[in-house]
Amino acid sequence: MERILVVGSTGAGKSTLARALGRRLDVPYHEMDALYFAGPDWAVNERLAEDVGEIAARPRWIIDSLGYPDVRDLLWDRADTVVWLDYGRHVIMPRVLRRSLRRTVTRESLFGGNRERWRDWLTRDHPAWWAWSRYPVRRREIGERVDDPRFAPLTVHRLRTPRTTAAWLAGLPSGG
């Protein structure tokens, strides 16, 4: 495990696991949303493909995403391992609601200095709405990629519960 994608639905805990996995294996972790959002008003990084390409060319990395469409194939072609947090909605929805509530109340600064706001809760782009509506689509996309012969060389760890994930992580050797 040298080039790792941690994938799953919004709220599954991709960033949390990717960060812990990076510490455990001593592999650099890169947060996809921090690469994607470049500034205020959720401005998109015009250099995303170049930035991700530079990271993906390195021998060791972890990225917490299926990948935005313009870099998805690049990441999947360069990865050697996919860790799929395939949790049910009953797991992810409470997580995403708690996270968004915390971020809104504390005015936590996110990617590019952006913040979740109360008025955003009623938009389709809010993480709670996004997690609910995109859940079946994201699950299908990941499943199709995992089953795609192009990506057969990848080692896939499909983890279906947080308990299984914790046990899997604890069983990994430390320090790479």
UniProtKB/TrEMBL annotation:
Would the keyword Transferase turn up in this protein's UniProt record? yes
**Signal peptide per UniProt:** none
Sorted alphabetically, the keyword list is:
Kinase, Transferase
Annotated GO molecular function terms are:
kinase activity
Q: Name the InterPro entries on file.
A: Cytidylate_Kinase-2, P-loop_NTPase
Q: Which PANTHER family does the annotation name?
A: TOXIN, YALI0E33011P
**What is the name of this protein?**
Adenylate kinase
Origin species: Streptomyces griseoviridis
